[in-house]
Write a structure and sequence with these properties.
InterPro entries: cDENN_dom, dDENN_dom, DENN_C, DENN_Domain_GEFs, TPR_DENND3, Tripartite_DENN, uDENN_dom, WD40/YVTN_repeat-like_dom_sf. The strands form 17 sheets. Strands 1, 3, 5, 8, 9 and 12 form a 6-stranded antiparallel sheet that branches. The chain has a 5-stranded mixed sheet with strand order 16-17-15-18-19, covered by helices on one side. Strands 26, 27, 28, 29 and 30 form a 5-stranded antiparallel sheet that branches. Helix content is about 30%, strand content about 25%. It is α+β, with helices and mostly antiparallel strands. Helix 28 packs across helix 31 and helix 30 crosses helix 33. The protein contains 34 helices and 62 strands.
Length: about 1350
Amino acid sequence: MADNLPSGLVEACVVVGAAGDKLKQLLQALPQTRDRELPLLEPEVLQVHAPPFVSKDSAKDSPAHVHAPAFSRIQKRRSFIKKKRERAATPPADSVKGNGVPSASATGTAPTTSTAAGATEDVSVPKDIDLIALPQLCFPGGLQISEECKEDSYHFLVFTDVFGNRTHGVVVQYHRHVQACQDGHAYQNGHWTSPKGPRLYTAYGICVISKYPYYNALRDCLSCLLMQLRTCRMSDFEERVKEFTAKLALVPIPPPGQLHVVFCLRPLQIFLPSREDKERPAVDLDLHLPFLCFRPQQLLEIITSILTEQRVVFVSSDWARLTLVAECFMRFIHPLHWQHPFVPVLSRQMLDFLMAPTSYLMGCHVHHIEDVLAETDDLILIHIDEGTVSSSSTDNSSLPETPWAARECFLRRVEGLQMHYDLEVCRLGAGTDVNDLRAQRRKWQHKLNTQVQRITLELIVNIFRDVHDHLNYEHRVFNSEEFLKSREPADQTFYQKVLDTHIFHSFLRDRLNQKMDAFSRLELKTRSETHKLRTMMDAPRRPNMQEMARKCHSPEKRLSKRLGMSLPNLAERSPMDTVRKTSLKKVHLKGELKAPQRPIKIFRLPEFPPPLSYSYVQNYYTDMIGQLGKAMTCLCPEDSSLLARYHYLRGFVSYVAGKRLEALSDFQNLYKTDTDIFPAELVRALVDSLAPEERVAADRRPELTRLISRAKRDQEGERARPDPFATIKKFQLPRTHLQREDFVRRIQESGIVKDLSTIHRLFDALTVETCKAGLGWHGVESAVKASSQSIFYVDSGLDGQQKQVDPEVFRFFYTIWKETEAEAQDVDLPTAVLEHLETNECVYKLSSSVKTSHGVGKIAMTQRRLFLLTEGRPGYVEITKFRDIEEVRISSAPFLILRIPSLKIKSSLRKEMFEANLKSECDLWNLMVKEMWAGRKMADEHKDPQYMQQALTNALLMDAVVGCLQSQKAIYAASKLAYFDRMKLEVPMMVPKTTAETLKHKINPSLDLTSPQAVDVLLYTPGQLGVSGADGGGNPKLWCALSDGKVVAFDAASWSMQQNSVQVGSSRLTCLLGVNQQQLWIGSQDSVIYIINPRSMSCNKQLTEHRSEVTGLALEERADKYSHLVAYSCSAEGTVIVWDVSTLQVRKHFRLSCDRLQSVQVHNGWLWCCARDSILEVRRNGTVQRRVSLPPQRSPQLPQRSPSPSPSLSSSPSPVSSHSAYSCFLLFDETEQLWTGCADTDELCVWHCRDLTKPFHRIQLQDCAGVLCMIKVKNQIWVGCRGRSAGQARGKIYVVDTERHLVEKELAAHGDRVQALCSAEDRYVLSGAAQEDGKVAIWKVE
């Protein structure tokens, strides 16, 4: 076996103890030291056992029939350390034996020389393991010779390399008596005769080192080893330890998921739990230990000290507790990762590590604490035994408190934990089988660990929930200042310290990379409805009426302005919440998170063979592969998750066994079962290790060829991909003048607005000409002067002049925007006013106190209405809703000899006009109200609520621009942002009557993006396809495939966007198919069929058999409930593949001769395939039955009014017609009619299935430039086209009657071609447009 094989459970086993010559010297001096305390000895490495223990080459060199001894001394080692020990050559009879450990061949290799000058030993060391410090860590308190035999003790170690990779160790110290040869005694039968004198005992440490934190499992393994060592002959000691290590090296590590591994190491059954996911380490320790040592409030203090990266020192009188408790806290802060030195056990020789100037987390014995405090200050001391947390700082600075809302939620959750195992088993009888008792305890512990992890994860989520609101993903910017301002004043000290830490920086990288880890999943699941609505509407942040009502009712107990609304689980305390921690009563809190538990499956390894014999080891691997195969055959095809774990495990074992092609085949199957656990690095190493003959054999198997090429392609892609650990920028105000591109980036980074067109209008507003190029720029003398001179020109040597925004202007604008946002947070409306407003309304603008026709007060603007907040006794007077406005104008009201500007608003619900003497604010309010009015009209006419949100953003930007410029042209500059008011004048706002009556609603799948994205494919799935109704997923869904592989889902009951979109590859998506409740198939240009699980909104399966762009998917209805479900897929070059849906295996495939195969449908057992040049009727075996050629041109030839064809349809011209190509078709089984459309013609052709030589009817589509898609709904055909309206390119939909062959309706609601259509249960039709529009329209079906 190769040296680069993946490791099993054990990396190495090291035996540490006192050297034989040191023991000899001690015994010789024993008479002189009898009345004194025995000295401490320096521990040394005596043995190192590391895989590989057997090799194919060593098996060939030895006789095939020889099995005793059952191992070969010739071993391949990864690295070596030469250690010289000066000693005189002595005969065996004069050597000193301690626990029977041979000193001459401590590593299992014979000494290279044996002379009086000295001997040299080859100490074999596994890679990345340092033996220098290991003896001290195995005996952190020193190696003491004693006159009594002490009980065995265990402790745990963590090793960290320079790259931050951790390995783990479990150490057992056990004692054996020391016997010396004196005069007159002899060494017989492997034993020394007992001399007269004291009986001495020395300790030996056995350290098992693993890459995986299996602390409990490895401790159990060492317990089994000690039982053997106590009864073995001393001469067999090395062989027993070596055989023990070799057995553990044969144990494979279970993949992430629900499959756990169990093996027998007599007398115990050893249990290896799997990781919950790839990001989490395995949990093989008792996570409730810290809860037994500390009160909940102290747990929060310790977590805070870790999150703020203090110098943390754990202290205990028990070495084992140090690592276990420290590791528990590492699990508690997941998914955050400690970035600094992590040494939970410090030996007495390593205490100077505490002098390090950096942050760290270390542990030491309680005996050393006084020395530590004398030499070091500014420590957080955590005394595990006493359950205390203290600081050694001299400046009396204390740890900041955990944020209040998160703290309260955590404390209440902890009260519900049941950590008393005795209460769980008091009703049970006494067990007689130790393994049954262990399994029972393990089950209870697993349940408790799950609860603890859920509570601590919720704590982390509640602390950092709102971070994503202040991230700009496009430019990788975190606006830390705004995040801090949004926190409660009492919590800001905590966040100020956390935001500057490495641990938070790493967390930010994961958020900016949009990593879907445990934090992201829980954060999405627990978002409040208010937060979801704010995210979907993309509106500026303001408190709504519901939040204001909470402030009115309990101002002294209100939560953070935004954090409180983000914690749906925080209810008012009820009497049952006051149960003390020591109570035995289980507390069930309202809103408690209960994650679904997947059933755990156990795979039992075969009995261990003689582990040092190559042939026996190979037979062991063969048996294990056979058992895995049997387990896989017993699984249901639907249980793909567990099947993936078996494939992973079998691939791993096959790789270790040298069956590389079989291993590749198993890893290839992970694409069809669960790509989340695909071991990319392991597969690349496996591919690189293929021998030439294996590579030739792999090339003969298409599935392995695809895997190998993909592994190499992915590796090259990773090298070319931007560094995921790129530096995260903090938002900073500019210091230099900004050109248009720089201005766009800065505005997006600030989080003010994302939309590119809006930012461009803002740039024009802030660069209104106030100073000509000839005047130059003579400096900024004051802030006001700078703000008035918002533009200057640079002679670029070109004919034009380049506009730039002054950095002072940008700073003023940004400051005013944020101040306005903060002022809105402090708006305190009385309860009487709140009753008149809807719960999701927000006050966005409040005027100064003015005189109006309804009295004196302040005019308030929400997204729906204007109302007057009267002064004196606060009251509510509604002015108008924006949709009811009929006229807005400025007039002047006489006041003495002056005329004061006033704003007049006419409402359709009132006869009299509302008039307000707004004075200097009049022009601004005039602009804002007109923009909101126009936006409301546009939203109502086009059934698109986003227009109202855009108008609201424009109005608030106007307010900030006027406050920023403070010049005569400020109003003119703000008018640049009056987009909808200008549209009302330039283009008619009225939508055609037919369109307005049919259009129900419009939604924007690109809401969270900077620019619209094309809607390439649409699919509606009925309610039963989603998750359970309790999770909000029982409603039907609309799936939208956008550019670059992004899939967005909408709840079809409310047309609200689901929070977590799914990224499937990076290429354009071409087709969608709802297969069943667990599978949604998506075809892509990259030749892959991605499979989404609608329940979890995750993509973890892929079908990779196609070699070019996947263009069509179809599902064949079952003949009966017992038949297999079959799906069809086609690709552009003409390949059609038949799939078994349950197993995802290819049942058949064939290739058609055509020009770009575009879609496939199944009708009455026949396949109908649409290509550019023809439509084919195909038998299931791939035989073409009939071919429908392109229809002949009409006579006379009509002029073509076609722009460039769709990118997805552009190809070489058809051999039949130089200007036409099929784009879509429909087949009607009832009437035996075939309807076809072409990408560059303005007609539909209707064919009779009995005569496919020419169409018997042609339907003219007025103002159509090409048919792109069509669907059948009831007795209608809905046709999506590329059309023209008023001389401009528009998207059009034609509704055609299938019986009369007449166009019933012509619908125009898209600004770009309609390229996707789908039906929602024949009640609605949904249309998606190309990138210029990028929206989805919802139409009523009559």
